[in-house]
Amino acid sequence: MADIYTLGIDVGSTTSKCLILKNGTEIAASSLIPAGTGTSGPGRALAETLNDAGLKLEELAAVTATGYGRNTFEGADFVVSELSCHALGAAALMPGVRTVIDIGGQDAKVLRVSPAGRLERFLMNDKCAAGTGRFLEVMARVLETDVSQLAEMDEKAKGVVPISSTCTVFAESEVISQLAKNVDIRDLVAGIHASVAVRTAGLARRLGVTAPVGMTGGVARNAGVVRALEKELNAPIAVSPMAQLAGAYGAALYGFKKKEG
Ligand code: ADP
Fold first, then answer.
1. Ligand 1 atom 18: the closest Cα is on which residue?
2. Span from the CA of 116 to the centroid of ligand 1 (angstroms)
């Protein structure tokens, strides 16, 4: 039987993610372009992934779009909410996971997933930047660093400078005033991560935390946030190296299941 290739594209607020699955199991290619909805990011992610897989668009059995900007993507066979896609993707990448914490560029979600990877219930914060990737980006800028450096700085922290403001704008002022006091930047980063963890853990507790817990979304790449969240929830958190691609993976899997009937 001929191989079935399905493509998932997750058009995010900050990053475009694209992934092709072969027969619903094997990753043929994937790409991650740090430009989200309304930019050239989705088109570039699509072109790069097809090129890496050595495939043409016509050879795909299904294209499924998900993510914040999914409705702006033209040419999708299916358009699916990122909640369903993250549930599917997380269950495939971290088999057996029951609670999925997804922190992206501008929202945070906690999902309860059935053993088969179906979304059972969820809670989301998409009203406020605090506790999202945006909060970390704002803080990284104030600290003259990049989000990709925060985990390493946190690892070297000797203490935690607490951030008491829950609002991103006030928290930014608080960080600036701490910098003026000459506190150790690494301890400040640990405080920033603890602040994200406290907010996310609150959301998770409201939903109810069922082990095993896993994390998806770009912020899962920040091991400092993952560690702070493990401490806050008093539970280990699984993270796949493909965490940021979980939505695109779930979308490609959705298309495969539809085609397979
Ligand atoms: P969206 O789908 O909204 O674009 P993502 O799930 O792709 O969001 O996550 C984007 C966020 O991931 C960024 O705001 C940033 O905080 C975080 N991030 C991206 N790359 C890295 C990295 N290399 N290390 C740590 N954090 C990262």
1. 218
2. 27
Indicate which atom in ligand 1 lies nearest the CA of residue 36.
4
Using the mean position of ligand 1's atoms as its centre, give its distance from the Cα of residue 133 in Å: 6
Residue-range definition of the domain harbouring residue 138: 97-239
Are residue 108 and residue 50 in the same domain, yes or no? no
Structure tokens at 215: 């994390």
Question: Residues 75, 170: one domain?
Answer: no
Question: In whole angstroms, how far apart are CA 70 and each of 53, 79, 181, 183?
Answer: 22, 7, 44, 43
What's the CATH number where 107 sits? 3.30.420.40
CB-based pocket (< 6 A), ligand 1: 12-15, 36, 67-68, 104-106, 133-134, 136-137, 147-148, 217-219, 221-222, 244
- Report how many domains make up the chain: 2
pTM over 0.90: yes
Per-residue pLDDT of the chain (261 residues; tens, 9 = 90+): 799 999 999 999 999 999 999 999 999 999 999 999 999 999 999 999 999 999 999 999 999 999 999 999 999 999 999 999 999 999 999 999 999 999 999 999 999 999 888 999 999 988 888 889 999 999 999 999 999 999 999 999 999 999 988 888 888 899 899 888 999 999 999 999 999 999 999 999 999 999 999 999 999 999 999 999 999 999 999 999 999 999 999 999 999 999 887
